[in-house]
Amino acid sequence: MVLRRLAGGAVVLLVAWAACVRAQEKAPADAVLRDKGLTRVGGTYLLEADAKLPELMRRLRQVRKRVDDDAAKRAEIAKDIQKALDAEVGWDREMRDVDEKLSKAKDPVKHNQLAGQHNVLLSKMREAERYIDQRQKELSKMPDAWDDWVQVVLEVSDKFQAASRRYEELAADDAVKGATARLNEGAGGKVRLGPSGQFTQEQPYVRKQRELVDAGSIKLVVMGGVAQVNVTLNGTLSVPMLLDSGASSVFLSWEVAQQAGLRPGPKDPVVKAAIASGKSIEACLMTLRSVRVGPFVAEDVACLVAPASMKDAPNLLGGSYLRNYVYRMDLTRGELHMSPIGGKIQELPAATMPAATTAPASPLATTGPAAEKGSEPEVLVEKGWTILFRSADPTHWNTAVREADAYAVPLEKAPADMAYLRMRNADGDYVIIPLKRDELQKHVGRHTYGWEGRNIAMHKAHHLGIYVKSMPRKAKGSIDVSQVTNASWTGYGFGNRVRMDDRQGYAWEGKPAGHSVFEIAVTAGPLTEEERKRVPGD
Fold first, then answer.
1. Is 80 exceeded by the pLDDT of residue 226?
2. Where are the domains of the chain?
3. Which secondary-structure segment (H or E) carries 397?
């Protein structure tokens, strides 16, 4: 009996000893994983960012909701403003009818009735103006959670990227593999290396939020504290517009409206609009099929068109477009940051998306490689020619632009020893002139031709291109590429429309062309035999 009890005690001691040995083996294994920055959560060893993921994602979603809620409130106020504008348009029509009848009324009673109707309508219109002013003031005081959202998105996405890279390193680490294997020996449940299921599930959402932040950075041109951004109207016309968050609607000059295909007529409603000087004007209320800034497209956008008599009217990107987005201007960096309400970017049609290749099948089919956020576009070189400019908008000259329909780099990117400049149109036709790098931004006159590189803005147009002295501009509507005192010529490029001076003109081989994309490229040479044939004699 005593021996049996001793034997039983030995078995107990043996089991305890074995458990102790296993614990000693497992303890170092757990320590190895902890030393690698891993924490056990359930049966998974996670990095700190993964272990704290619920808290991070809660912060991200909370601030995103604030952004969307604020934007929705702004959109609601903007909608109320638009309703008031629409009502004002209706009352304006009624008043015109009443005033016409009033001018013809002979009977005193009828005259008084019409006068009373006129006064009621006038009172309603004034009340609408006061309401619009009040709502616009509310709009200007709305909170903006954009900065908080951007900061949290960057923080969370950076942690996701760092954790993903670290998990890949740990998965290939022999020490981690060995420690995990030792922990999984025998009973006690299996363990594994992260990431967690939530990490994998949330990664696409975090990546999309980062894409929204990156895609929403659009280049501004800031002059004297005033910000301009390139805007595409109706899918065809690219025009610089002043960003005006205080304007309730997009506002276009008569000339730009004509170029965009809008033709204000007597049947179009007229509303009163206050301009920056405080003066009240009558503008036509019309609708643009589409307005695009960078990748952000809004359709059926209400706009006000200035009267033809209003010279030098500004082009304003106002509330009827901006209310679709959360936006913020960074004048110091010269950037406009945008995000759609609800966090969805409308994709551009395939035909307008930038191509990925740098060797286009047709001459001007692509605008070059995509630019990283905060950087200039990569310099595009094709068959020895450095592309400096490829756009229908001459204001892009000597700037950094990478858009679906435009590409430009600063002129400092030209080769220091460049010897020739080439202008090419969308059909692949081209002309070449000898030119040095320090002449790119100058007016250069030769015996038979010249180069206008100053991009002078005169007569409601910019002037940039090659002019030919055997091509004088005489006929009305011909394009004056040059800007030379007492002498003007047409040729190849951008200029004003002679004796019309109404909008940007385009010329090729001395003849007016429609809205055109031109390419300007330079090379140090040598030229091919075919290229030498395109150099004019001097």
1. no
2. 17-184+193-215, 218-340, 375-532
3. none
